[in-house]
Amino acid sequence: MSRLYDVIIIGAGPAGLAAARTLWDEGVNRVLLLEREKEAGGVPRHCRHPTFGMQTFHRPMKGHIWAKRILSLVQKNCEIRTGTTVVNIKPGGEVTVSSDRGLETLVGKRVIIATGVRETPRHARLVSGVRPQGVLTAGALQQFIYLKKLKPGIQPVIIGSELVSFSTIWTLRNAGIKALALIDENIRPTAFRLAAIYARLMGVKLHLGAHVTQINGRERVESIEFTAADGSAQQLACDSIIFTGRFTGEYALIRNSHLAYEPESGRPWFDQYGRCSDRDYYVVGNMTHPADMGDQCYLEGLRVGRLVAQSLLRQGAQRFDIPVQLDEVFRIAAPNVISVSPEAADRVTLNVRVNRYHKGEIIVRDGEKELYRGKHRCLPERRILLKNIDISGLTSDSQIRVIAR
Question: For 14, 200, 293, 345, which has the most beta carbons within 10 A of its beta carbon?
Fold first, then answer.
């Protein structure tokens, strides 16, 4: 079996599969997909809510059906190795992997990293208590119910109010389980307001503006304590607690590599083409902007796959990179670097996230020159697109800053 490839893709979720599809369509034949799970398809494999497919196939599809569909478009043309973990990456497209074959070193002319995201678990949220059974994330819940056919509890409480929090109500309902309550620190749901109506229709009580203080139970979860929005201390009996959302990228591979990254987050530095500090390496999907919908990541994978194919056919022109600076309102921008060269497009789109609620203008400037201005209503964890930012006049002395007004 070959150890030399045109492109190696790390991660066979929506973005990775999409990149593989485009590479094949563009005539790049030696493509290898590496996936640490036993099956390719990513997180959608264990999703049963019909929120996939509208942007890719123009009809609603359940996650596992959509995952099979996007996998079917590449599995006959690309080599896919599941149960394979990437140990490290090195200059020259050198990738070390571990599998039941042992350790191997593979080499790609280009490497695309599409390792996705994970939810923030209980310990990272500084919730007190011992570690009883029954504390898990939404992703673990989906695997328990849909893949293993197990019920981790029958009286669960959900922590968080993102879209994944409300899809957890759906997952529990499919298993014949009713959530007792949904608790979140924000005074309004992070997801759309209609999601809160759905929760109430399902008989799930919302505790917004509440702060979890303690998980009780030694062998098994027995109750949860929280401070309500009015300041009162409350306790709710339950047998399981599901932490949802607050997604963060899978950056362990980046942190231990030669690639430049943001010290505070571990997110790699990458430009509007997905290129990293080592131009043989690209990044794509939710690891660059935790966390967008599966369809959105798939479309992004198609775009980056095409760019990687083009990079194999021609030598790129000389370029310079300009970091994207952010006001304190903003948490991330994707890309976090703007690459300028004679071949670069005149306009780019920034995908940003905020740390707190903001309603007003967002301005992108190069010094005193305004590149973009738009009105936005922003909430944490929401996808905010700053479209058609004019970069035609940028120079090596430019300083790009995103400002909230």
Answer: 14
Task: Tell me the HSE value of 124 on the side-chain side, using a 13 A CA sphere.
Answer: 12
Indicate the burial class of 155 (C-beta count within 10 angstroms; 0-12, 13-18, 19 or more): middle
**Cα-to-chain-centroid distance, residue 98:** 24
**pLDDT band with cut points at 50, 70 and 90 for residue 352:** very high
* DSSP β-bridge partners for residue 320: 340
* pLDDT tier, 345 (very low <50, low <70, confident <90, very high otherwise): confident
- Which domains does the chain possess? 1-119+247-315 (3.50.50.60), 123-243 (3.50.50.60), 318-405 (no CATH)
Q: How far is CA 378 from CA 245, 353, 403, in A?
A: 17, 8, 13
- CA separation for the pair 392, 403 (Å, rounded): 20
Contact present, 328 and 355 (Cβ < 8 Å): yes
Residue 109 contacts residue 280 (beta carbons within 8 Å): yes
Per-residue pLDDT reduced to its tens digit, 36-55: 999 999 999 989 889 999 99
| Long-range contacts, 355-360 (Cβ 8 Å, 24+) | 355/328, 355/329, 355/330, 355/331, 355/380, 356/329, 356/380, 358/329, 358/404, 360/404, 360/405
Q: Give the distance, in angstroms, between the CA of residue 327 and the centroid of all CA atoms in the same chain.
A: 22
Share of the chain above pLDDT 90, in %: 83
Map 248-269 to HEC letters.
EECCHHHHCCCCCECCCCCCEC
Q: pTM to 2 decimals? A: 0.93
Three-state secondary structure call for residue 196? helix
